[in-house]
Amino acid sequence: MKSTLYLKTSLLLLATLTCFAQNQSFKWPKEARMAISLTFDDARGSQATKGAPLLDEYGVKGTFYVVPSAVKGQLAGWKKVVDKKHEIGNHSLNHSCSGNFVWSRKSALENYTIDQMRTELLEANTQIETLLGVKPESYAYPCGQTFVGRGKNAKSFVPVIADLFVSGRTWLDEAPVDAGYCDMAQLTGVEMDGKDFEHLLPVIEEAKKNGQWLVLAGHEMADSGAQTTRLAMLRKLCAYAKDPANGIWIAPVGEVARYVKGERKRLGLAE
């Protein structure tokens, strides 16, 4: 009895160590110890006028998840963002969230079907490509919500995102992405709005220690205000990430996602 229990325990330990070894074998390019992606939602005006130009100063490329109607309101500015090689992602056609957000009641996720969601996502892709000449391969869930319908009829539309995009990003998460394990259609998005660099640095250092991918998420890009990624913080973050001594690969979500998929395939890890 004891020998059987010992054997089972040993096999479990071996499996655990093997899994750990696989994760440890995941390598970032250029001897980096982690990856960071800077992402911004909604196509807010300040992103095109203030935020993207700041990133350009440091040679950093961000991922901007846009809603077509917002892009139309500042089309010339967004074309400049594309010209600078920032990534443009899909953030839905109508920014639909739960009807618990009163402003979303007319396009509440509770009233959607999977087919309606797929149709709108494809239409958003078409409009974004018409406006900006790029087809999005990354998606961010508005409000971080991944369902349609309600009650017994509620369904996840994560499989739709997995089918249409290389990656999907959620919102207000508490952990970085484990590149060797993660569901690429549900990348965790860690909020950077309202935070100073000194507040984010411990999060960065912990992710670096674990060899993770930190996908930071924000909205407005200005000096202050609600739902705002502070420009002063971004300057410090960009300077820190671009210093080779800090071992960080900073790149758009799409670029990192493609690398992760290739590396996982090479290592025989689940896709």
Record keyword descriptors for this entry.
TIM Barrel, alpha/beta, 271 residues, disordered N terminus, 43% helix, 9 helices, 6-stranded parallel beta sheet, NODB_dom
Biggest pleated-sheet summary: 6 strands, parallel
Overall number of structural domains? 1
Classification by helices and strands: alpha/beta
- CATH class membership: Alpha Beta
- Global Rg: 20 Å
Query: How many runs of DSSP E, i.e. beta strands?
Result: 12
Cα separation of the termini: 38 Å
Beta fraction of the residues? Answer: 15-25%
Shape-level CATH architecture: Alpha-Beta Barrel
Compressed to H and E, one letter per element, the order equals HEHEHHEHEEEHEEHEEEHEH
**Global outline:** globular
Q: How much is the average pLDDT?
A: 92
Q: CATH homologous superfamily, by name?
A: Glycoside hydrolase/deacetylase
Counted by DSSP, the helix tally is: 9
CATH topology grouping: TIM Barrel
Low-confidence stretches: 1-23
Estimate the helix proportion, in percent. Answer: 40-55%
Tell me what the structure shows:
The chain has 271 residues and is an alpha/beta fold. It is 43% helix and 16% strand. The protein has helices at 2-25, 45-57, 68-72, 75-83, 114-132, 158-164, 197-209, 231-242, 253-267, and strands at 34-41, 63-66, 87-90, 138-140, 147-148, 155-156, 167-169, 190-191, 213-218, 220-222, 228-230, 248-250. The longest helix has 24 residues, at 2-25. It is globular. Mean pLDDT is 92; it is low at 1-23. One of its GO terms (biological process) is carbohydrate metabolic process. Its main location: secreted.
